[in-house]
């Protein structure tokens, strides 16, 4: 029989079935099949909202080219006949998102991200209440239903509503897949669902980081597949037909996906959890039963701590000057950082070179950055890395400004790609840095609000093309270069967290920051 001392150490599901055994491999493999469609849902439509050039045949028989973001409908009416330069069936062409209606393109792209804001609460709640597997199935069903509607609708406003629903399902599929690989240290999942904050639910501590990174690489690989596919497929409805067929097939993967044993235990269904864990455990019966019993006890204690933390809310942050300053600094940093990252992606559609080549280059730079940050985030100081990434992004974008509106496209694309490289480097960093600053009592709420601000900034980022339409590309690059400097300035007001104990209470957070201020003043 197992000794109590050893049993007391049982805190994770992996203590019963190992860190990377058959169950984890099965879950990861099935989730990978479900997850790889994500870039098609999120970014695929952008390649069917390109800036279409318009040809206009004048009354004297000559043809001129009009820019879809600069023209007016009066100019088109004066044409003997007019049409689009390309054969691509885009949403811009389908609903005449040109001239005075050009702003509709940015609005239509932004509503998908608005669905993200709703999904974090709705799908997160369903996941906690009814199970990960059920929430995942609901998310995919929402996507399938909305995509079928998109294929057949000819009404712009119906299309917009369907894209919001698609966004709810898309982000739901993303967060539930990660929740199945991760657990939240007792915090409520639907308030913070980012993969860099919550820990893996079924995978052991030694493999959690690798699983997070694996999901990132799945994204990059799928993004390249998406870029190539969208290049050859000319009709946006054809893309949605393909996505729908694929996601119908993923329902088979969901059917064979095991429910999370950890969720079953927390929900009180110990029998089903025990059956799954016993099936994949190599321990003998007595040791397994002892460990399983201790795991149940530890999870009960975890839930009690969670209820205790629920007594503390975000408003306590505003009670003290120091905490108020730190929280507001992070809100600005998240807002500025996300706006620049999304803005750079959408500004690639305003560059005169091929948007497909541009984004292939951007993705390659982002992948290289992800590889570098994987080995650097725990090696160097968080604050220094964050400031460096923000400033270098702004400098790179500033260096691209002289080449805007000129024939020298390669230098501009290179500098914009570098700007994307550096701002991307801050993504995993900000999700590592932020939860290390806030105390356990309100960490989940604080990071959840910051994550929501991130999504709001993403919505604004989709409108960056309107700046180019109203002014020019130089102004757009200036607009993108400034926020990084602002965010870097606010970062200097924060304390370093590398090698510092993470606070459990607001009082500890104030104490840590006070020690930092005393060292600065000496």
Automatic annotation (TrEMBL):
Report the transmembrane regions from the record: 27-50, 102-127, 134-165, 212-234, 240-257, 326-347, 353-372, 384-404, 410-433, 476-494
What the entry lists under SUPFAM superfamilies is as follows: MFS general substrate transporter (SSF103473)
State the membrane topology.
Multi-pass membrane protein
Enumerate the InterPro entries for this protein. Answer: MFS_dom (IPR020846), MFS_sugar_transport-like (IPR005828), MFS_trans_sf (IPR036259), Sugar_transporter_CS (IPR005829)
Q: Which domain of life is it from?
A: Eukaryota
Task: List the keywords (alphabetical).
Answer: Membrane, Transmembrane, Transmembrane helix
Q: Where in the cell is it found?
A: Membrane
- List the molecular function annotations (GO) for this entry: transmembrane transporter activity
Q: Where is the Major facilitator superfamily (MFS) profile domain?
A: 27-499
Annotated GO CC locations: membrane
The keyword Protein biosynthesis is annotated on this UniProt entry: no
Known Pfam families for this protein? Sugar_tr
**The name this protein goes by in its record:** Major facilitator superfamily (MFS) profile domain-containing protein
